[in-house]
Amino acid sequence: xxxxxxxxxxxxxxxxxxxxxxxxxxxxxxxxxxxxxxxxxxxxxxxxxxxxxxxxxxxxxxxxxxxxxxxxxxxxxxxxxxxxxxxxxxxxxxxxxxxxxxxxxxxxxxxxxxxxxxxxxxx
Amino acid sequence: xxxxxxxxxxxxxxxxxxxxxxxxxxxxxxxxxxxxxxxxxxxxxxxxxxxxxxxxxxxxxxxxxxxxxxxxxxxxxxxxxxxxxxxxxxxxxxxxxxxxxxxxxxxxxxxxxxxxxxxxxxx
Lengths: 123, 123
Known about the structure:
Chain A is an alpha+beta fold.
């Protein structure tokens, strides 16, 4: 399970880097093509384009997102895992834009773990 | 996977019944003892007592919760599963108190599936 946590954390590093640099298309490619994105304040959205747009809309107010994995578990034959964690959001000047938590289902597609279902909210 | 969905839906019937009748202790026993409860607006809470209190605090404004399973998936060897779904909340007079969505990690403890991690938000 240590390997799984390292795998997921490595993907989360890419998530944070791509968000910070504004590469929302690259960020969306960390998700499966048929992902379910479940943000607060709207219905569940499906697919990478929705993810790209959602994070694009968030960027003006939130310069940076920091993800912190708390727990990973449960793989079925190496293909599906869950991750529970928390996140902090920061403005351009480094001040807080809020904190929250998330539950993600990760799916191995073609040997690479992708975010498949992503549900989160703020505290 | 059809069996898993039926199992989870049967547990959700108990969830809805116990919530409606105000049996929050019974409701909390549908969760694992070390569950992680992730509601919007507060930090992650651990354990059944926190679940009991959270739903007790919700009851005056929300008479009834209806859960609708959209998707279930197995994670590891029959012991861990995930469920993605949506919910509606109703007031005493039947009018809407909001709609939302959830992602739950279910864990088989002693042959019975329990909610183990529950993350949700409103639309």
